[in-house]
Task: structure prediction
Amino acid sequence: MSSFAPKNPDYRALATATFERQRAMQTLGVSIVRMEPGAVDLAMPYSPDFTQQNGFVHAGIITAGLDNACGIAAFTLMPAGSDILTVEFKTNLLAPARGERFLFRGVVLKPGRTLTVCDGKAYAVQDGVETLVATMTGTLMALQRRA
Result:
């Protein structure tokens, strides 16, 4: 449960619209499964098209999901007229990414006027069991929305 209050009462609609404008997430089949102020869960089905040479989902795909979960979580706390941009992240790959589905959970650790720090966790889901496969710490920047 998030302890943050959104600065924009329309945060849910705006965060969803921002997510839906991301063609990369559409291509990967990623969807929002939970959203609250400062926290977002995304889900992605397994596809062999996303694997590397050993059959695991590629680290770049996992990182993209984590980056997006952190970004949308940060965006939920930004004021109206804001846009979001990642400025830094660090990812730790903890286990091979193999499963029938993947979850990406982003949580705001420290919101700021310009910079927000988030924590992300990626899970592979197989037969209902979640296995932590990667973590991320990310810094995201609020910027004025462009036309």
